[in-house]
Design a protein that fits this description.
single chain, four-stranded antiparallel beta sheet, Immunoglobulin-like, 2 domains
Length: 181
């Protein structure tokens, strides 16, 4: 391999007057190409794995958020309902887990609602979200069996509707994988 040019100067040298023969210039160009390549890989990954977590009408929902929050606080204070959402055991991917939703008034009397719904929201993947109705198994006690398709963090929201009144309780859970039993 010939490492010298015709006039006996090294092919790659800091003394070379040709830019593409200088190792410093080649190093800078290589660094810039590396950064551009990594950025291109990040952009492609972001586009291909987009979880779709942005609400389609986020602006309108954002404008109504404070009104909704104040309305929920007023309903909660007016009704005085005490709500509790609990599970028999920690949920495991692909296995059935029973959730119970208890609702009582300030005197401890069970609330007989018109409808109870549980919503499972996965913060990292909108495609995994689901919602299902809960069955009333006793006055003020609602239950449902849930099977989670993915491990990780989930937000559960249990909603009780009685006439015009509607209250919600939210709980963050962690679904375990099959191998961490």
């Amino acid at each position: 391999m010939n490492t010298m040019t015709d006039n006996n100067t090294p092919r790659f040298s800091q003394d070379s007057k040709r830019a593409f023969r200088n190792p410093w210039v080649l190093g800078w160009i290589g660094g810039i190409l590396l950064v551009l390549g990594v950025n291109a890989a990040f952009i492609v990954t972001a586009i291909m794995t987009n979880p779709g977590l942005v609400e389609k009408d986020y602006y309108e929902k954002g404008q109504e958020q404070e009104k909704t929050f104040i309305s929920q606080q007023q309903s909660r204070n007016r009704l005085g309902w005490q709500m509790k959402l609990e599970a028999v055991r920690d949920p495991i991917v692909g296995e059935s887990a029973r959730y119970t939703f208890n609702v009582v008034d300030t005197a401890g009397i069970p609330i007989d609602g018109d409808k109870a719904v549980i919503q499972a929201y996965r913060p990292s993947d909108v495609n995994a979200d689901f919602s299902t109705d809960m069955q009333e198994i006793a006055p003020g006690v609602y239950s449902v069996e849930l099977v989670f398709p993915l491990k990780g963090v989930w937000d559960l929201s249990a909603v009780l509707i009685k006439g015009e009144d509607k209250l919600k309780i939210t709980r963050r859970i962690s679904v375990l994988s099959n191998d961490t039993k």
